[in-house]
Amino acid sequence: MKKMNLVVLAALGMTVLTGSVLADEATGDEALNRANKVVERREAVMGLMGWSAGPMVGMIKEQTPYDAGAFTRQARRMAALSEMVDDLFKADVRQFDLHTEAKPELWDEYDDFAKLAQDLVDSSKSLVVASEAGDLDVARKAFTAVADDCKACHDKYKEDDH
Ligand code: HEC
What is the residue-averaged pLDDT of the chain? Predict the structure, then answer.
């Protein structure tokens, strides 16, 4: 029964992928392919971070009408995504030639990176609570703390956009 489940999961592409699996078992093109997926997943989640922030930024700048429910929904999405950052970035795939904007020193200073990721978990949770008050000024203040946490990590560990 256990085996069956693993076969089904594998068929769905849900293979367990950790740093050690990458390093120990995969070779050649398969390893490169897996490493590429790791990076794509990181970038996808970061892209969704931006996507979840967008409507909140619009409301904060009063470019779109404030909708407390919509704001809170985006804040919850961001909080959920922020929980994934540490796990997603753990694997060190620097040995592969991949297009990434992550700076290589991220993995020399992983504890510091993980701390910055945790700061975002904390500030985005506070944002959810603040947004539930239904007051744009309160939400704006909490959002500023989140944006500072995005920036703190990007300044250290993300290459500038080219
Ligand atoms: C703990 C570090 C960290 C935090 C916090 C963080 N990011 Fe990132 N972000 C990165 C790194 C590293 C990259 C580069 C990833 C890559 O190219 O492999 C990145 C890339 C991005 C990208 C580009 C994605 C792409 O398509 O290549 C966006 C957009 C982004 N982040 C938005 C955000 C937003 C919005 C927040 C805050 C809500 C945030 N990030 C918080 C580290 C962080």
Answer: 90
